[in-house]
Amino acid sequence: MSWRMINKPTIELLRPCSDRLKNYLNHYSDFKGDIVEFLELENITPQDKIWVAVRIMPRLLVETFAIDCAFVVATHAAYATDAYAAAAADADAAAADAYAAAADAAYAAADAADTIYSAAYAYAYAAAYAAATYAADTTYSAAYAYAAAADTTYSAAYAYAAAADAVRENQIDTLIMILEGEM
N or C, which terminus of the chain has less Cβ within 10 Å? Predict the structure, then answer.
């Protein structure tokens, strides 16, 4: 089957972008092998391997691969959406709680200052200072909660990227199984 063979002319006929072609030529300009051997090359990204494979494979195999990818994406999307929604809800709740506590502390400080003002300036000052300190601590807690949420979001993004890379590697494995008739 001639479509299975990959070499420099095959890649050039597909007209990849200049960066991808340059990468291929830098690492594998003398490569001559079948599509499975191409999919196992180290210095080509999974995205580029898939790009080449779906352009040279017969339509039936591309459709089989597309259906498999659709099932994986549906499963992954459901999980990612649930996880992101839960993290966002937790971050929003923490920020709202911290903001409410800071507002309560500020109102309490104002009420305490109004009530106590006539009794003793020093007592009012101490109460206001304590309330302001509490409000500052609460604001710090809110900022910390926000930072933790941002850190969680970053971690989630990193985990998502790692999961996406793993999915692409699984797609390469799936292509190899399809091509070798294991699916």
Answer: N
Domain coverage including residue 41? 2-56
Considering only CA atoms, which of 142, 107, 97 is closest in space to residue 150?
A: 142
Q: Would the CA dihedral through 171, 174, 179, 183 be positive or negative?
A: negative
Same-domain status, 70 and 140? yes
Secondary structure of residue 33 in the 3-state scheme = strand
Q: Which pTM value belongs to this model?
A: 0.57
Cα–Cα distance for residue pair 169/164, rounded to 1 Å: 9
Regarding whether 98 and 164 lie in a shared domain, the answer is: yes
Do 98 and 170 have their domain in common?
A: yes
Do residues 157 and 79 share a domain? yes
Find the distance separating the first CA and the last CA of the chain, reported in whole Å: 19
